[in-house]
Write a structure and sequence with these properties.
345 residues, alpha+beta, ABC transporter transmembrane region fold, Rossmann fold, 4-stranded antiparallel sheet, two-stranded antiparallel ribbon, 6 strands
Length: 345
């Protein structure tokens, strides 16, 4: 709409009084520059504000996902303080954004200076070239409105930048090519698995926190058939050992072996199919109990599903439910879950 207004205004100006239109044409730069500058500044500030909000979002997500840990260690006040500190940056950027918007609106005063010049030059056209006063006034207004419209069009780019900044993380995730491809079918498969696991001088830091090294020359050897417990404080790397063994992440240094073979040389799907994992905060998906168990082995038979439930001491409980293994799971957590009988259609 603004671009069309600009083009139409200058077209009408040249049709009515081309001499005045030519003189007034360079002023479009003066009228547009404030809009362009404010648009670029607002675009940059919008990006920075989004980044600051992402920091606060991360703190909130971590606190909510580990709410029991936060509560048990009486960390509510610390979490609130961290969240408030993360929002301080948005306050400063918001003030700058408000100042930029105010300057952009205030710059509209340049229009009166442009009008003054056009009316002065238009008066000479009236006196010496037979132009009419009404025509001069119409052309001057059209030039000013055309320039302001173009400037407004540029300032509206800010809204596109807001959308682009908001979608940045989503676009990065869509376009990201994972280093570990879970669908890759290449790699070795061990014919006879004994289960010996060995970590050799492993070095690792999470990609999101590369400055926080979790393992530095970590060594661990678990003989086949042994039961091993990893004990340590929260954040010491117990869960990280399992994540590395399942190749959710790859170490930055040295190697991890199963039965003497490096796991990065093994077929990933096969490797994960050889292990059973129950995490410290297990969750069930919003589907039937049977389908939840099938996530461990998609092509398993019903007999294998029942055998897995018996091995985990869940078969007797499941059998007492109204629909047994076809019972729908509505919500679950590591402490409790609710189950509802499927409605028959």
């Amino acid at each position: 709409m603004n671009v069309t207004t600009c083009v139409g205004a200058y077209f009408v100006s040249f049709m009515l009084l081309w001499r005045l239109a030519i003189v007034g044409l360079p002023f479009i730069i003066v009228l547009v520059i404030p809009g362009l500058i404010s648009g670029r500044i607002l675009m940059r500030l919008s990006r920075k504000i989004r980044e600051e909000y992402n920091k606060a979002d991360t703190i909130a997500q971590q606190a909510l996902s580990s709410v029991r840990t936060v509560y048990s260690f009486v960390g509510e006040n610390k979490t609130i303080k961290d969240y408030s500190d993360a929002l301080e940056g948005t306050v400063k950027l918001g003030l700058k954004q408000g100042l930029a918007k105010g300057l952009a609106i205030g710059s509209n005063g340049i229009t009166f200076g442009v009008w003054a010049f056009l009316y002065w030059y238009g008066s000479t056209l009236v006196m010496h070239h037979g132009a009419r006063g009404g025509t001069v006034w119409s052309v001057a207004v059209a030039i000013a409105i055309g320039g302001l419209s173009f400037g407004s069009a540029m300032s509206n780019v800010k809204y596109f930048s807001d959308a682009m900044a908001a979608s940045k993380r989503i676009r990065e995730m869509i376009e990201r090519v994972p280093a570990i491809d879970s669908e890759n079918t290449e790699g070795e498969m061990i014919q006879q698995v004994y289960g010996e696991v060995e970590f050799k001088n492993v070095k690792f830091a999470y990609p999101s926190r590369p400055e926080s090294v979790i393992f530095e020359a970590f060594n661990l050897k678990v003989p086949a058939g042994r039961t091993v417990a990893l004990v340590g404080r929260s954040g010491s790397g117990k869960s990280t050992v399992i994540a590395l063994l399942l190749r959710f992440y790859d170490p930055q240094g040295r190697e991890i072996c199963v039965d003497g073979v490096r796991i990065d040389k093994l077929q990933l799907k096969w490797l994960r199919s050889q292990m059973g994992l129950v995490s410290q905060e297990p969750a069930l998906f919003d589907t039937t109990i049977k389908e939840n168990i099938l996530f461990g082995k998609e092509d398993a038979t019903m007999e294998e599903v029942i055998e897995a439930a018996k091995a985990s001491n869940a078969h007797d409980f499941i059998s007492q439910l109204p629909q047994a293994y076809d019972t729908q799971v509505l919500f679950s957590s590591s402490r409790y879950y609710k189950i509802k009988k499927k409605k028959s259609r």
